[in-house]
Design brief:
This is DUF3667 domain-containing protein. Keywords: Membrane, Transmembrane, Transmembrane helix. InterPro entries: DUF3667. The chain has about 325 residues and is an all-alpha fold. About 70% of the residues lie in helices and about 0% in strands. A hairpin with a 6-residue loop joins strand 1 and strand 2. It starts with a strand and ends with a helix.
């Protein structure tokens, strides 16, 4: 007798009658979508991730390399997925970091505003229509309006008094660019740089510039993580495909964000001494060393050499380059 077949509404695969769940996708047959079912699935899915996170939390902190090794061995449902772990921990870290960055942004803004108040020129008595912007006449105007005895906190590589005077006299941007030192044969990118510099100088909101840089860090870190994995791949080119090194990198960066997040959270409660913070930061190298030793299964001396190469290659080459690019991009499109 031919068995009756059931078609799954989710994956549309056929299976024999009698199964409570689809053998292909796991959907429960003939389950009505009630309010109870809807919230049960939502809550159970949320707490399954949450439970795996807490199950992964302790091994990530105290067993370097364990989660990465376990994952590539095929045990991929016991602990939180490496990419999932990275995204979750990084979100929490940058949320905590936002409190620190906000204070720094406010501090920078205060410095710029104080500097602007100290160096503002009172040129109301100058007849703007009669002002001639030739070198002799304008230099005498600037000289007469020099602010003496002012300790500028922020200095630029141009005559600020002259530029301030030109701004208050509503001079053209071209005239101001020339006062700032832009050559007459400046190309597009150089003119764009002077344009952004003048915009920044007029507004004096350095905090926004700093905030833009901070906002770029999460994206930059997500780009830098595969570069770290690539460095490991070059050092351990015989130890599996690139995806293995990427798994290791996801878990290691998750540890970094988690460790620094704990430091920030603790510092909110108790002011930690700088020496303790320095020790905690340096300890991340030894964590990486142990993780590399456990994951790649090489001798301690060789692991130390390769860990040092990976660390210094990343810090001395990648991060400064990323900071320069981020700073340039933030400044150019500010």
């Amino acid at each position: 007798m031919r068995k009756k077949l059931t078609i799954c509404t989710n994956c549309e695969q056929k299976s024999a009658e009698g199964f409570q769940f689809c053998p292909h996708c796991g959907l429960k047959f003939n389950e009505e979508l009630t309010i109870g079912v809807l919230f049960y699935n939502t809550i159970s899915n949320y707490f399954s991730v949450d439970a795996r996170f807490f199950k992964s939390f302790i091994p990530l902190l105290i067993k370097p390399g364990f989660l990465a090794k376990t994952f590539i061995q095929g045990k991929r449902l016991l602990y939180l997925h490496p990419a999932q772990m990275y995204l979750f921990v990084s979100v929490v870290f940058f949320f905590l970091f936002s409190f620190i960055s906000r204070k720094q942004v406010e501090s920078v803004d205060k410095v710029f505003k104080d500097d602007l108040k100290k160096t503002s020129l009172k040129l109301d008595s100058i007849n703007k229509n009669d002002a001639q912007f030739n070198d002799i006449n304008f230099d005498s105007i600037v000289k007469s309006n020099e602010v003496k005895g002012v300790n500028r906190k922020i200095t630029y590589n141009f005559n600020q008094t002259k530029v301030d005077s030109l701004i208050q006299l509503n001079a053209s941007n071209e005239t101001i660019y020339k006062a700032m030192g832009m050559p007459e044969d400046a190309g597009f990118f150089k003119r764009k740089a002077y344009s952004q510099m003048l915009k920044f100088y007029k507004q004096r909101n350095g905090g926004s510039l700093l905030q833009g840089f901070y906002d770029s860090i999460p994206v930059a870190m997500f780009i830098l993580l595969p570069i770290f994995a690539l460095i490991l791949k070059l050092l351990y080119y015989k130890k599996g495909p690139f995806s293995y090194h990427l798994v290791f990198s996801f878990y290691f960066f998750s540890f970094l964000f988690m460790a620094f997040g704990i430091l920030i959270a603790t510092n909110f409660i108790i002011k930690l001494p700088d020496s303790l913070v320095t020790i905690a930061i340096l300890s991340t190298f030894f964590y990486l060393l142990i993780a590399v030793k456990r994951f790649y299964e090489q001798r301690w001396f060789l692991s130390f050499i390769k860990t040092s190469i990976a660390t210094f290659s990343f810090l001395l080459l990648v991060i400064p380059l990323a900071i320069i690019v981020l700073s340039l991009a933030t400044f150019m499109f500010y």
